[in-house]
Amino acid sequence: MTRVAVLYGGISNEREVSLSSGLQVAAALREAGYHVALIDVTDDLPALLTALTPKPDAVFNALHGRFGEDGAIQGVLDWLGIPYTHSGVRASAIAMDKQVSKAMFSAAGLPVAKGEIIPVEELLVADPMPLPYVIKPVSEGSSVGVEIIRQGDNRRAAVAQAWRFGRSAMVEEFIPGRELTVSVMGDRALAVTDIIADAGTFYDYESKYADGGSHHIIPAEIDPTIYARALEVALRAHKVIGCRGATRCDFRYDDTKGEPGRLVLLEINTQPGLTPTSLLPEQAAYLGINFPRLCAWMVEHATCREGT
Fold it and tell me: Is 130 exposed, middle or buried (0-12, 13-18, 19+ CB in 10 A)?
């Protein structure tokens, strides 16, 4: 029986999401026949090292956000020589940095939104681009800190004053239309899901994780050429960044003037959510892969020390 340590919790803004993911993963792995130890990760690194002694056969990384998704914990596990799920240090760090990953996507010819990185104090003075536009942290996940500034909106200065995600922010054109997502397992793009946020047009943190916050249409009822293109772009993004295991790409699809419309890649997630409302398990189930099998697949593909 393989001994798997599930790392969950963490010290990022996404701790609560990770706690939910970790509990669900642990139950699924036990159902799949693994011996599982749950480790609640805090800011006490020596305690984590102690919890990982003796070394498990593999680590299931159910952490989200900074220090769990950005290459930090991956580096620790590489140092210890413990195989772990999801992407390695390099891919994790690149994907978490929206500026770097976006530059790589653009260089690879993938469709991205127009935007730039600006000092937050500039938002106090004037709009950095024509309305509407999106303000987002450079290195956060789960839509944490994302704001949309629309026509007639006077929140720009207030957003800047309340900003708590560093001195810079990414601003991008707002893409109207639909929210789409595509999960990838290894070298296979699974499906396209159309996400409808029940509170409005923006798939924010509450829409992602609150019960009834959104509903999903799978497969997405969109133009077949766009459906195929979304699968292609997600798999290409996965490979461009150098990801492994499972990832999820999020898109905006502007079909407001008819189909086929404009497909835009927003970001890639190297630690897709594994909560009861998450999209990767839903797409896997759509293709006949139940949750225990999905989690077991991740453990089976665990590795460490990329490039060696």
Answer: exposed
Measure the CA dihedral 218/222/228/233, to 10°. -90
Note the Cα 48 to chain centre separation in Å: 24
Is the pTM higher than 0.85? The answer reads yes
- HEC string of 142-186? CCCCCEEECCCCCCHHHHHHHCCCCCEEEEEECCCCEEEEEEEEC
User: Residue 55 carries which DSSP code?
Assistant: P
Q: Please name the amino acid found at residue 3.
A: R
pLDDT digit string, tens, across residues 16-65: 999 999 999 999 999 999 999 999 999 999 999 999 999 999 999 999 98
Rounded-to-integer distance, Cα 238 and Cα 278, Å: 19
Which range among 129-133, 151-155, 202-206, 227-231 shows the weakest confidence by mean pLDDT? 202-206
111 or 215: which leads in pLDDT? 111
Mean pLDDT over each residue of the chain, to the nearest integer = 91
DSSP secondary structure letter of residue 85: S
CATH number at residue 161: 3.30.1490.20
Report pLDDT for 209: 46
Instruction: For residue 79, give Cα distances in angstroms to 37, 59, 83, 136, 263.
Output: 20, 13, 10, 32, 40
**Residues 205/144, Cβ–Cβ less than 8 Å:** yes
Are residues 107 and 222 located together in one domain of the fold?
yes
Residues 74 and 193 reside in one and the same domain: no
Distance CA 64, CA 205 (A): 13
Residues acting as catalytic residues: 14, 142, 209, 248, 250, 267, 269, 273
End-to-end CA distance of the chain: 27
- Which residue segment(s) compose the domain that 52 sits in? 3-85
Instruction: Say how many domains are in the chain.
Output: 3
Pairing state of beta strands 246-254 and 178-185?
Answer: antiparallel
